[in-house]
Amino acid sequence: MTQVLAAGTVPAYPIHLTAPPRPDRPSRWLWLVKWLLIVPHLVLLVFLWAAFAVLSVVALVSILATGRYPRAIFDFNVGVMRWSWRVSYYSYGALATDRYPPFTLADVPDYPARLDVDYPERLSRGQALVKWWLLALPHYLILGAASYAAVRLADRVGEADLVWQTGLVGMLTLIAGFALLFTGHYPQGLYDLLIGISRWVMRVTGYAALMTDTYPPFRLDQGGQVEPQDTSYPPVAAQPAPPAATWTAGPVTAVVAGAFAVVLGLGLTTTGGVLVAAPEDGYVTSPTLTVDSPGYAVATEAALLEGTAVDEALGLVRVRAEATDGDEVFVGIADARDALAYLAGVRHTVLRGALPGNDLQRPGAQPATLPQQTAIWLASSSGPGRQAVEVEARPGSWVVVVMPTDGSAGVRADVDVASTLPWLRPAAGGLLTVGVLLLLGGAAAVALGVRSASDGQPR
Questions:
Q1: What's the DSSP call for residue 224?
Q2: Where in the sequence is the domain holding 204, given as residue range(s)?
């Protein structure tokens, strides 16, 4: 169902996105440079949306515990959505005004783009657990499918790269921009459509952010002003809401800084935990790689280790190999010059990276001496099953060689490489410590910011 909104209608859905009935006769040319003019807003919105995400988690916990959305957090998150809508209306979400958006979370009554959300007295605990990922899924699919349809349409006319970055709204705004450029007029129908899409997106955003239990309508309410009265929503008796919070620069800065500290702390603690769990038997082991050659050996490219702290950086290095057919296998590590001299004239494969197709095939004949009878190896092992060699990392140029022990042609083995990395546990401990401190400090900053905004509420 699609309808154009008339002025003076009564709002029904608790998330109200409003705009003038017509655009503000924007400039022909200014839209070409608005991408530069909105950079300060985009930088701030990155931080604000990070805080929005962190505070939404806090709100979820509060709803599960009390059934209420904390008013100060509610006002902050509404302010972030409001700020984003103003920037979108000015720039490439509509291009409908040349009046620069204000830098504030608060409502600006005389700005053409406005957004407000009715504060919910009570919220469902059960819905809070599923609405943002399950109940809102049909809306995600519809809005995502609309963007994908725009991509496919543009792909047929050779503009896939451009539209893939902008999506449906970006493509429609680009059309509006060219209409302004060549005619000086903004198509009214296109304006109504863009406002309707933004209204739908903001309704879904507010619902997914737990701001209302009222399910968003599957309806494209086009045009400016406010939503029409919808009898599908039962009337709710008006109840006094808690007073609005006062989000001045100080509380906003505290919450944003705290939210970023929380996000960074989560990243550091997760990384530290992964590093702690990574070692297996004291080694950090690579994925198993199957190597094969029609010749008599498989050798790596020379690995150059330089510096006085190689042993401290790598510790012990281990190479394991196991023939896939169960036959005996030889694995050895040698100086690159000695290995090249041994393999000179021997048919073998040189591995060049982990990607297939880059290996070098060296022609030649059978080796004159079996590998286990040669004294060039820094460390070697041979026999049935998995064979392993361990060496202490040291400066030099080194090659790993895998061969059948009987010197026959045809090599196929599963190989992995590992290192003890002595610095890993201290680094993991440092990351965990810093991460926990950031989590605690960030949580404290968020709490202080919310408390300060709440204390600033008019009594």
A1: S
A2: 2-232
Same domain, 413 and 288: yes
For tokens 């040669």, the residue is 374
Please indicate, yes or no, whether residues 133 and 10 belong to a single structural domain of this protein. Answer: yes
Residue type (1 letter), 433: T
Q: Supply the DSSP symbol for 337.
A: H
Is residue 216 in some structural domain? yes
- Residue 270 is assigned to a structural domain of this protein: no
Sole residue written with tokens 């009564």:
10
Q: DSSP 3-state assignment of 300?
A: strand
Does residue 317 lie within any of the structural domains?
yes
Beta-carbon contacts of residue 99 (< 8 Å; ≥ 6 apart) = 24, 90, 111, 112
- Tell me, yes or no, whether 341 and 202 share the same domain: no
E strands, 13-172, in order: 15-18, 114-117
Of the candidates 59, 70, 452, the residue with the CA atom closest to the CA atom of residue 241:
70
Copy the structure tokens of residue 427.
């680094």
Angle between helix 188-208 and helix 160-183 axes, rounded to 10 deg: 130
Residue-level pLDDT at 3: 47
Three-state SS at 97: coil
Residue 121: which H helix or E strand, with range? none
Output the six-digit token pair for 436: 């926990």
CA distance 130 to 128: 6
State the average pLDDT over residues 240-253. 80
Residues 290 and 228 in one domain: no
Task: Say yes or no to pLDDT of 2 above 50.
Answer: no
Residues 6+ apart with CB under 8 A from 46: none
Tokens representing 403 are: 């061969």
Backbone angles phi, psi at 158, to 5 degrees: 80, 20
pLDDT of 162:
42
Tally of CB atoms within 10 A around 143: 17
Give 178-234 pLDDT, tens digit per residue: 999 999 999 999 999 999 999 999 999 999 999 999 999 999 899 987 554 444 444
Give the pLDDT score at 171.
86
| pLDDT over 90 (residue 177) | yes
Q: Using an 8 Å Cβ cutoff, are 296 and 403 in contact? A: yes
Looking at the fold, whether 29 and 165 belong to one and the same domain comes out as yes
Task: Tell me, yes or no, whether 117 lies in a domain.
Answer: yes
Q: Give the CA angle between residues 345, 397, 336 to the nearest 5°.
A: 15
- Assign residue 333 the CATH number of its domain: 2.60.120.380
The mean per-residue pLDDT over the stretch 8-13 comes to 58
Give me the pLDDT at residue 151, please: 55
Give the number of domains in the chain: 2
CA distances from 454 to 115, 248, 251, 395, 407 (A): 21, 11, 10, 62, 79
- Asked whether 295 and 411 are in contact (CB, 8 A), the reply is yes
Residue linked to tokens 């009337």: 235
